[in-house]
Amino acid sequence: MEDRRKKRHKKRKAAKKRKNALLTKEERKEKRRRERRRLVIMERVAIAFLIVGVIGGGGFAVVWNLPAVKLSRQLNAGDEYTEEEAYPEAIEAYENALEIDSTSVKAYRCMAGAYLGMENDSQAKQVLYSGWENTQDESLLQYYCTVILNEAVDEINSDSTDSGTMDKIIAVLDQGIMEEEALELLDTVYERMMGQYRDAAPVIDFASYEEIMERMFDLYERNPSDKIGALTEQFGYLDVEELTLPAEHVDAYLNILQEADKITANTERSSLIACLQKEKEVQEFFAGIFQEFDSGNYEAAKEFIAADAYTELRDAFISGTMEYWTGETQIPVSREYVKLRQSDGAWTFSFPEFSENEATAGIITVWGTDMRDNGVLRTSISYEPAMENGVYLPHIQYVISYMYSNLQKSNGFLYEMNYHFETRTWTEEGMTTHLIGGWGGPYQWEKTY
């Protein structure tokens, strides 16, 4: 008899299982809800009978309303809602649980899990961090950090790594836990971001890079460990072959390089530091004459190109002894950006010509060529002002030279040092040159061709 009952029970169970397998996901969820409601009703009926059975009814009521019992009911309800993926109802139940006991670690953890189920990571992190603040439970802090690092991993895997990714990892490092995992991710971020920079070179988003380095230096200052120092030093050098560095970022990048070099010296970085320092010297050297040319005072060029500093600079290009600044025979100087190049670990710089940057505020050109007049080396400089109203033509170049040339005097033609001022104008029809010889002297002459 007992065996037959067992067999019938197994058959009914198997039939029920087959029936459930035919139900859709929504039908199964609705069935679980009905079963849960039925259990709740049965529970309440049983409670009613117990209350009647207890003398005065007071004893059971006290037990039912104990905080621990009420907390357990809310947590269980939240768990059931979570199992059914009814996340808003689950969150409400966990909120009710926290109203009963604001230190319930389970309520915080489960509520965060419900928010994650809704793909609301921001709210989940807020719940976990508030829970840690209220309870000081390390497991909540670790859960909070895990959610953050998982976000960073998703960004790495989707090739969307940026300064925000670093913020997440640094936020975890600031908590003093999961350091090994965070540093491993930070190393991966370095590799990914350096790859992005190499792909983007020579034009790189320096504003974003500066933000990253500000975070790294700040982190290292707070936590000067060898691992963080090594990563900070790595980040503090863009290991690419070419860079286009906007003028407004030169000082910031130079500071980054110098600060990183204090952590660990690097030969290539030291070369770049020296290169940028030289670039700053060049900008400072030409700053004054740029102002004069911009205002139309070309007379200022006379003293400038006759000075030893300018002729030494010219001679360095002619002899090929200029260490960091590269160029051929006509070497442009501009103020918008500098072009940096690395070859075998050594860095050099140059400036764009007018044709490369027609939005320039003006270009000065050093004439580093061996031009001799009766055996005397000529010194020349030229200036191309900014375009007017964004229109290239007419395009003008002013050329000032200090040279040994023949001047017509009262007693005949004689050779002596004098200035020439050339105005070259390009139009759609071609180029016209207006030349003034003996410029500013008693034997000045003019010619247009």
Radius of gyration: 39 Å
Number of strands: 12
What is the averaged pLDDT score?
88
Q: What structural class do helix, strand and pairing data support? A: alpha+beta
Order of helices and strands: HHHHHHHHHHHHEHHHHEEEEEEEEEEE
Taking the alpha carbons of the first and last residues, their distance comes to 126 Å
Contiguous runs where pLDDT drops below 50 for at least 5 residues: 39-56
Shape: elongated
Largest sheet: 7 strands, antiparallel
The share of residues in helices is: 55-70%
Query: If strands are numbered along the chain, what order do they take across the biggest sheet?
Result: 2-5-8-9-10-11-12
User: What portion of the residues fall into strands of 2 or more residues?
Assistant: 15-25%
Q: Number of DSSP helices?
A: 16
Describe the structure.
This protein is of the alpha+beta class and 449 residues long. It has a domain at 285-449. 58% of the residues lie in helices and 18% in strands. It contains 16 helices and twelve strands. The strands form three sheets. The protein has a seven-stranded antiparallel β-sheet with strand order 2-5-8-9-10-11-12. A hairpin with a 2-residue loop joins strand 9 and strand 10. Helix 4 runs parallel beside helix 6, helix 7 packs antiparallel against helix 8 (138-157) and helix 10 packs parallel to helix 12 (226-235). It starts with a helix and ends with a strand.
